[in-house]
Amino acid sequence: MSEQIKAIVAEAGADGKMVAGLKTLSLSDLPNEDVLVHVAYSTVNYKDGLAVTGKGKICRTLPMVPGIDLAGTVVESRDANWHPGDRVVLNGSGLSEDQWGGYAQKQRVRGAFLVRCPDEFSFAEAMALGTAGYTAMLCVNAIRDHGVKPADGPIVVSGAAGGVGSVAIILLARLGYEIAAVTGRPATGEWLKSLGATTIVPRDELARDAKPLEKERWAAGVDNVGANTLATMLAQTKYEGIVAACGLAGGMGLPTSVMPFILRGVTLRGIDSVQAALPRRQRAWRDLAQLIDRDALAKIYTTKPLAEVPALANQILGGTIQGRVVIDVNA
Description:
Helices cover 28% and strands 27% of the residues. It is of the alpha/beta class and 331 residues long. The chain folds into 2 domains: 4-117 and 300-328, Alpha-Beta Complex (Quinone Oxidoreductase, Chain A, domain 1); 132-270, 3-Layer(aba) Sandwich (Rossmann fold). Strands 3, 4, 5, 6, 7, 14 and 15 form a 7-stranded mixed sheet that branches. A 6-stranded parallel sheet has the order 10-9-8-11-12-13, sandwiched between helices. Helix 4 links the parallel strand 9 and strand 10 (199-202). Helix 2 crosses helix 3 (163-174) and helix 2 (123-145) crosses helix 7 (278-291). The mean pLDDT is 95.
């Protein structure tokens, strides 16, 4: 008899609409990929919320085990690069879309997608970072590679109380930057300052119709929101500054003009965490291991059991989750 495992499974309901819930699967139900991982932890990202609730067209095939992150130990491998006992993390790479993901006690995945989990991190800490932390590191590296120095001025971070925003603040603070944290939740202000934010900017200051150019305020920015917030951020970015854009919580539109780009030389750098090349992924995880303040990291996550994923998916879409939620798939 095949081994039984618990998993969150998204499938078509009786009315044709997608539903997701906790189920028992057999090991033989897993995809025929080349590495079997005993999953220790996953996490909940905004994209997970869309996938699990069906409110976004994330799952391209059904049934699907969602979860765009996982951390765990290799059990079996047909890939020469991976061996039983190896500690691994996996972010994005089509998980929840056309590849089964991390909301399962065991999962078969492609070895080419895996990255070694830094020894500095427990699996829970790796998933406290997860796609959000890895994306934040990609954004921060884009700003560093652009040549922005702490002396150049403040870095603005939108969606600051979310997963990407909170990790970006920790990283930027460690690197010595002044940070303006944008949030629509005033109650998070002191928490954001404890992570390293210098000032708190009310969301409404950026989430509005912007002029083509406004007063120069930011040396660089990390944007998780898009739409009007990103447009205002671009209009306020200093000469030859950069904005790393990685999210669309505020919408997919961008009501801006060419003025920031042709009169101030501003760079808009798109950050894709799903299909990023392996060397960029490996660099991001190495940098996270070197830069993350683990005491600060401990402030931004809580741990919940696998069975709570459907409820948590609704909460993250509603904007009521502060920081990160790590999922103990074996609890």
